Amino acid sequence: MDCVFDKNSLIINGKRTFIKSGSLHYFHTFGKNEWQDRLSKMKAGGYNAVDLYFCWSFHSPKRGFYDFSDYKNIRELLDIARDLGLFIIARPGPYINAELSGGGIPYWLFKDKNAIIRNRKEGDYVYSKNFMEALKGWYNALLPIIKDFENVILIQVENEYSTNGGETEYIEELAQIVKNAGIKAPVFHNDAYIAGLYSDVTDIYACDIYPFINPSNSWKDSIFAFDTLDNLEDVVREFNDFSPLFVAELQAGWYDKWLGCGYENIRENLGFNHINIMTKTAIANGVTIFNHYMAAGGTNILDMAADEVYTSYDFAAPISEFGAIRDNFKKAK
Known about the structure:
Layout: E1 3-5, E2 10-12, E3 15-17, E4 19-23, H1 32-44, E5 49-53, H2 56-59, H3 74-83, E6 87-91, H4 107-110, E7 120-121, E8 124-125, H5 129-147, E9 152-156, H6 169-180, E10 187-191, E11 204-209, H7 227-230, H8 232-236, E12 245-251, H9 263-284, E13 287-293, E14 298-299, E15 312-313, H10 327-332
Parallel strand pairs: 4-5, 4-13, 5-6, 6-9, 9-10, 10-11, 11-12, 12-13
Antiparallel strand pairs: 1-2, 2-3, 7-8, 14-15
């Protein structure tokens, strides 16, 4: 599959393609039966792509060991997506966040006193040979699997990364590893600050947009709820006039915390109007690649979750934790 781009859109096999993606976490939904169900519903809901974090800690409980069997068999997941005709946005980390413990970086690496996690110490860039050797082990195990699927149209390196000095060496090295692995899809990084971070060293610039992060109240009470999104095109085009406007995480729900207000209240407070306004405003700003985060909810198992969240990762998503279709799914469609 030939995937190139200009400032307006992706061009896949010579055809301009508008990407309507949603996030699914295979490590929150378990095995091919659930994957088939959720991805089929996404396809029926109008999505033409699925955004997939690949979780290092989920596959690597100890150094040098990688488990891709049973409900961790990502080849089966990617086979289902391909058979359904869905494009793939691949996000292998190493850090993925996803409200996971360590952001998906394995415990055994945190225990390595000679490894500086993410080459960052107190916000400063510090290159860590031990960390990079471990990371390359993960990439060497994962990237050959991703390479086998031609429907992978975009691949991310790192996630929401920054340093005090804005050094680019780390992101450049990861991008080069991906390209050396033979993956031809354009490389992007997801900027949490919409500050143009690494727009000059990746193929495509992407950003997060979460206008509403206080789910105990209604977003309708905040007159500035969509201010960042309203000005997205003007802001991004100041530093990026060569790749399509891409929102790698466009808010489609929110997570609940211990002693939080509960997912039913989050659904009520967000409502289907939120996803409707979010998506239409993004399109009105010229966005031609968007990804609803999350499209489908899920469940935390074992000790995967960050301390602030509990077992459910329903996320008030258009497709619920148990696969039910919600009102915001209908509006997204």
